[in-house]
Amino acid sequence: MSHIHHHHLLNMEKKLIELSTLRVFLAAAEEKNFSNAAKRLHLSQSAVSQNIQSMERAYGVDLFIRHGRVVELTEAGQSILPMARDVLRAARLLEDGFQEINHQVGGELLIGCSTSAGKYLLPVLLSDFQREYPAVHPRVKVMGRDGVYDRLLNQSIPIGVSSKYFDHRDLESVPLFDDRIFLIVPINHPWANYGKATPDDLLDQHIIMREEMSGTCETVMQGLKGYDITPDMLKVSMELGNPEAIEMAVERGVGIAFVSEMVAARGLAFGRVKKVELQGLDLKRTVYISRHINHPLTRAQTLFWEFAKIRRDVLNTEIWDSLVNFGEIVSPT
Question: Which residues is 107 bridged to in the sheet?
Answer without folding.
Answer: 136
